[in-house]
Design a protein that fits this description.
Blueprint: E1 3-4, H1 25-36, E2 44-50, H2 51-56, E3 66-70, E4 79-81, H3 84-94, E5 97-102, H4 106-114
Parallel strand pairs: 1-5, 2-3, 2-5, 3-4
């Protein structure tokens, strides 16, 4: 149904002061390829993130995949949902996506694992 993508620092951290606590080109390229490439050229991938994660990337959607934010806020450049279940239901029913990835942060990871 969906995959969870998470990277952690040596001390098991996923973020620090609104950003990831490391810079690794290989990690970033792996993440980009994983979340953008599809087998079916007629489909795209979707990424789902929480508000803090979206704000940490400058409130700009990541290119070449559809971005969705779980938040009560509304943004002009991405679709927002108030909860993960509602978002997943819409994405799965649309049949537009080859893969759906939950990419963080902490609160959304916890919700996704429970799912």
């Amino acid at each position: 149904m969906f995959d969870i993508v998470v990277a952690v620092s040596n001390n098991k951290g996923i973020g620090f002061k609104g950003t990831i606590p490391w810079r690794n080109k290989e990690d970033m390229l792996f993440f980009k390829n994983l979340t953008t490439k599809t087998q079916d050229v007629n489909k795209k991938n979707a990424i789902i993130m929480g508000r803090v994660t979206f704000e940490s990337i400058g409130k700009k959607p990541l290119p070449n995949r559809d971005n969705f934010v779980i938040t009560k806020n509304k943004y002009h450049n991405v679709e927002s949902y108030s909860n993960l279940d509602e978002c997943l239901n819409d994405l799965i029913q649309s049949k537009k996506y080859e893969s759906i990835f939950v990419i963080g942060g902490e609160t959304l990871y916890k919700e996704a694992v429970k799912h």
